[in-house]
Every structure is written in structure tokens, then in C-alpha cells.
């Protein structure tokens, strides 16, 4: 594939890509890992990654969040994201 064709295809795919938003829900298309988008980082090379905090706990402890390239993420329909306005109170045994 010629470089021009590749660049054109990349631009087309990026324009169709659903926007990943902080506070929104996202799923890694390769592993199925899903949760809330809690951070975004953009490197000088142009690589963009998002940190996903999964739902639930293991042995009473939160599951570790992971970073994913933006191209690996799918977002839920009607997923607006945005800042958190209130946090639930922790449940103690």
C-alpha cells in the first residue's frame, strides 16, 4: 500500500472514530477490559493513551487500572462522559 493511501485510510478511520471522553465508559477491543476512562496522555510522538479503571474488586481491593492506545478502545453509545459531580460513599463492613 502506498503511503498516500495509508494516510488517507488513517484519516478516514480517525474521522469515524467515536470520541473517548474522560469519565465515559470504554472497552479494549482486543481483551474486553472495560471500565471508566480516568486519564488521558498524549506523547510528543502523537501517541494518545487512556487509563481505564475497571469496575468491581478482587478480594475487597479495587482492580488495577491499565493504559490503552486510543485505537484499541471502543466507547458505549450515548456515552457522554464528563467530570464526576458526586462520589458514592464508601461501604464499610
What does this structure look like?
This protein has 1 helix and 7 strands, in the order αβββββββ. It has 93 residues and is of the alpha+beta class. It has a domain at 20-75: SH3 type barrels (Roll). The strands form 2 sheets. A 5-stranded antiparallel β-sheet has the order 6-3-2-1-7, with no helix packed on it. A two-stranded antiparallel ribbon has the order 4-5.
Structure in a nutshell:
It is built from 1 helix and 7 strands. Helix content is 15%, strand content 33%.
Q: Uncertain spans, ≥5 residues at pLDDT below 50?
A: none
CATH architecture of the domain at 20-75: Roll
Strand order of the largest sheet: 6-3-2-1-7
Counting DSSP H or I runs of 4 or more residues, the number of helices is 1
Class of the domain at 20-75, according to the CATH hierarchy?
Mainly Beta
Shape: elongated
Largest sheet report: 5 strands, antiparallel
DSSP strand content:
25-35%
Rg measurement, Å:
16 Å
State the helicity in percent bands.
10-25%
Counted beta strands: 7
Mean pLDDT: 78
Distance between the termini: 60 Å
What's the SSE pattern?
Answer: HEEEEEEE
CATH topology heading of the domain at 20-75:
SH3 type barrels
Broad structural category: alpha+beta
Amino acid at each position: 500500500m502506498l503511503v498516500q493511501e495509508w494516510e488517507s485510510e488513517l484519516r478516514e478511520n480517525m474521522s469515524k472514530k467515536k470520541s473517548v471522553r474522560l469519565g465515559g465508559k470504554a472497552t479494549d477491543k482486543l481483551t474486553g477490559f472495560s471500565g471508566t476512562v480516568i486519564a488521558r496522555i498524549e506523547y510528543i510522538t502523537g501517541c494518545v493513551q487512556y487509563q481505564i479503571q475497571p469496575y468491581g474488586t478482587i478480594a475487597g481491593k479495587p482492580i488495577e487500572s491499565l493504559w490503552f492506545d486510543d485505537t484499541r478502545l471502543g466507547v458505549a453509545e450515548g456515552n457522554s462522559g464528563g467530570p464526576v459531580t458526586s462520589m458514592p460513599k464508601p461501604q464499610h463492613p
